[in-house]
Amino acid sequence: MDPLSLLVGAGIAVSGFLAGRFGTRRRAGERPEQVEPLCTCGHGLAYHDRESQDCHGLVKTAVKFDKVYGAVGYEMRPCTCRRYVGPMPLETFYAPEITD
Ligand SMILES: [Zn+2]
Ligand SMILES: [Zn+2]
Fold first, then answer.
1. 81 and 47 in one domain?
2. pLDDT in tens for each of the 100 residues of the chain?
3. pLDDT for position 7
4. Domain range enclosing 55
5. Quick one: which ligand is closest to 83's CA?
6. 85 vs 43: CA distance, rounded Å
7. Are 49 and 81 members of one domain?
8. Which of 1, 16, 43, 62 sits between 20 and 30 A of 70, alpha carbons compared?
9. Is 70 inside any structural domain?
10. How far is the CA of 59 from the centre of ligand 2 (A)?
11. Which ligand is the nearest neighbour of the Cα of 57?
12. For residue 69, how far is the Cα from the chain centroid?
């Protein structure tokens, strides 16, 4: 193999590596906009009642079990969460009531 083709090969490897790095970084930068702040129950703030704080979401609950395979049957059950404890999304902050 001549030195030139070795260099070209190395160049392709490096550019591929860089493209992979930048690609990963770009994807990582996009993610925070799509990720919705979630409560520990797995539901977002929108699922929680603003006054009572009760969660209106559904939770996949195992209802059928197999000795070998474990849970084999699931049912959607109402979430038992009673208060949103996840991070507060900034846009959901609303002006406090004026009690004057
Ligand atoms: Zn919750
Ligand atoms: Zn919930």
1. yes
2. 677 777 777 776 776 666 666 655 555 555 555 677 899 999 999 999 999 999 999 999 999 999 999 999 999 999 999 999 998 876 555 566 667 6
3. 74
4. 38-85
5. 1
6. 10
7. yes
8. 43
9. yes
10. 7
11. 2
12. 28
Say which amino acid occupies 55: C
List residues, by chain if needed, whose CB lies under 5 Å from ion ligand 1: 39, 41, 55, 81
- Name the token pair of 55: 């969660």
Q: Which ligand is nearest to the CA of 58?
A: 2
pLDDT at 38: 93
Rounded Cα gap, residues 54 and 74, in angstroms: 23
Domain co-membership, 56 together with 80: yes
**Helix residue ranges, H only, the chain:** 3-34
Question: For residue 89, how far is its CA from the centre of ligand 2 (angstroms)?
Answer: 16
Distance (Å, rounded) from C-alpha 13 to C-alpha 7?
10
Tell me whether residue 91 is in a domain: no
